[in-house]
Design brief:
By secondary structure, the protein is of the alpha/beta class. It has helices at residues 13-26, 41-51, 60-84, 95-105, 114-120, 134-148, 160-176, 190-205, and strands at 2-6, 31-35, 88-92, 126-131, 181-185. α2 (41-51) packs antiparallel against α3. The longest helix has 25 residues, at 60-84. The two termini are 14 Å apart.
């Protein structure tokens, strides 16, 4: 089973993925935790290029193709072998992120990706969307940067209008695919959100 975790920055999706992984392992499942971009050695190099704030000259089409290159490598090297072994794959961001960030955020028509998507991109069995307002996301990022003495990456540095388009795209995905794409309110205590995640995932696994 492939379960993907989506949401704008600082929505808590990575934390919830790690918590779910622990729960599943305690119940006897074999779990692979991974992410996009950067789930493979090649992907980590692509991730450095994509997120480096110095790469301001990168055009949107190049950005899309770098994400797709990372994703295809990741599917072939990590996801498909794990699924064939009967493992559960938890992935921090996946193809929906490209459609939201590069499609809606960059306002690109990504129809030209359809052949690649149809032939090479495996659809997730379940997608959990951690919905957070852009204002709350920006506040969390600011606090993170102050506490960890870091700066926003290239994507995190986009403006509020960009992220509002991304969030709206995610809402559209949830409306169009309610069987796969499930919204969770990302405002709340971590244990409360964790219980909600488990209440969604465990019944689908039969435990």
């Amino acid at each position: 089973m492939l379960i993907t975790f989506e949401g704008i920055d600082a929505s808590g999706k990575t934390t919830q993925m790690e918590l779910l992984s622990r729960t599943l392992e305690e119940k006897g499942y074999q779990v692979v935790n991974t992410r996009q971009p950067g789930g493979t050695s090649i992907g980590r190099r692509i991730r450095q290029i994509l997120l480096n704030p110095e790469n301001v000259e990168m055009v949107p089409e190049t950005e899309v193709l770098l994400y797709m290159a990372d994703r295809i490598q990741h599917i072939k090297e990590i996801i498909e072998p794990a699924l064939s072994r009967g493992q559960i794959v938890l992935c921090d961001r996946y193809h929906d992120a490209t459609m939201a960030y590069q499609g809606a955020g960059r306002q690109l028509d990504l129809g030209w990706l359809t052949p690649l998507q149809s032939n090479l991109i495996r659809e997730p069995d379940l997608t959990l969307w951690f919905d957070l307002s852009v204002e709350a996301s920006q506040d969390r990022l600011q606090k993170r940067n102050e506490n960890q003495n870091v700066e926003n990456c290239r994507l995190e540095s986009e403006d509020i209008v960009f992220f509002n388009r991304v969030r709206k795209a995610y809402a559209g995905f949830a409306a169009n695919e309610p069987g796969r794409f499930i919204r969770l309110d990302a405002i709340g205590e971590i244990p409360e959100i964790q219980r909600r995640v488990e209440s969604i995932v465990l019944p689908k696994l039969g435990k």
